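Bug: token stream looks shifted between consecutive jobs. Job 1:
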Amino acid sequence: MDKAVLTCALTGVLTDPAVYPAPVTPEQMAHEARRAFDEGASVMHVHFRNLAAGKGHLPSWEPEVATAVIAAIRDACPGVLINQTTGVVGPDIAGPLACLRAVRPEIAALNAGSLNYLKTRADGSWAWPPMLFDNPVEKVAAFLAVMRENGIEPEFECFDTGIVRTAAAVALNNGFARPPKYNFVMGVESGMPADPELLPILLRHIVAGARWSVTAIGRREIWPLHARAAELGGDLRTGLEDTIYLPDGARAASNGDLVRALASLARAAGRGIASPAEARAALNLSNKETTP
């Protein structure tokens, strides 16, 4: 079985640094990236945060912030691959597109379909007002056009089985001849559950030979899902965006702690850990400037 490519999701979109050890500034992002890099992460999934005092829990789409964060991470982690977020609610995608053009990451997350983003409390009431994470075809196409123009590889974020089944059609109808790289997002309450038994079913509905990974969102219950993904040959992702809990239920002090646990699961499944150069080759990123 080939080596596992490990991705670290450093901070997420709204993780509150006053509550969790989420990095915000370029210096903090670089420090956390290096801790994850030293434990085997060759890809950093990056969100950008508002750098104004007291605003670090809020996102930023300022290209100046994006370039400063990415420059700091690249300096701290030689050869690292960048996977930039693009997720935004609503039709205005000018900010994410500006950051893609400014950063030109190797990979960008592409939310490939819409989802009612819901969570309930124990009494059945909404934990937050019901929200539509809207990703209609025309919005996805606009992101893909800019990714093509800038030699960026899309990673198709799949929140439910319908998105998994249509990702290849989305890619093909927007000029991407290669099979999509799938990322199964599992554990969102209104999406696919973090159930290891679901993985073999999902794999029956992807393009043969396509690269795939799992984003597992939750607490300690997500780690058996990571283990199953490793056994089935998938790439692996963790980080403070996805969880703050280690397999034993203890809170992680850093992204490095989470990546160390993930690498241990990969090795237990008989997998090596891909270096940045090996990850670049495995993900077909050897020539980033070539339009897919």
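Job 2, same session, no restart:
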Amino acid sequence: MQVDRRAFLATLGVGSLELMSPEDRAEALEHYMMDELDRALPGTSPREQEMREEAEYHKQQGAQPRGTGRLLLPQTRVLEPMPPRPTLLDFYRLRFSPANHVLQSATHALRTGQPERTVMACLLHDVVLNLIKADHGWWGAQLMEPYVDERISWGIRYHQALRFYPDESVGYEYPELYNRIFGEDYVPEPYIRQAYEHARAHAWYMEARLITVNDLYAFDRDAQVSIDPFVDIIGRNFKQPPEGLGFDNSASAHMWRTIAHADKPL
């Protein structure tokens, strides 16, 4: 995806860039690219486009903190009700949609013969952005931990830090886009460096690294993707609670409820 630097900086608001840490800037860039990808989907109705533009306007005006997830931004759309016992597929259909970026990422992992754990991690790694943007690796891992193999949630947690550090063994280079947008003096926050060093020395390092490898290929405006090829993989790798996500008293049930009912005033 080609990024218009002026258009991207305009979404941050006047003077915002100078106040943001390098990590904040990288987070904002990735989220901008995901929003642009979803906005360009073929078949988007004029009304859907209008609502997205309205939400973007409110965001630029500072109506919500920078880290607010997309479901919590001001918008005129009324969210469709969730079923009584919502499944992960229900969340993809009713809350994460169009989920183009993660579907592209998982599709690439599937086509290149990655293990099912990696495919599943790619499918889940950024959906928490609907709830919150800041430190999405950590938040995303917490959201998924009760329901997936520990290696999957571990990989989701550390992919956020690994994005900034190359690994020639798997062909992952430092994103040139970061240099073009922020300059070659870009330095991640100390806690990101610490997380990278911890992950690099860990036996599960490749669980997170493979997410970043497949992440790079997931911003193609012309790609046609669907959740359908992943239904069986989800069935084998996601522990769907019979009570429904948000109602099983897990450590992250409250997060699923917030996503499900993001437009409730209280």
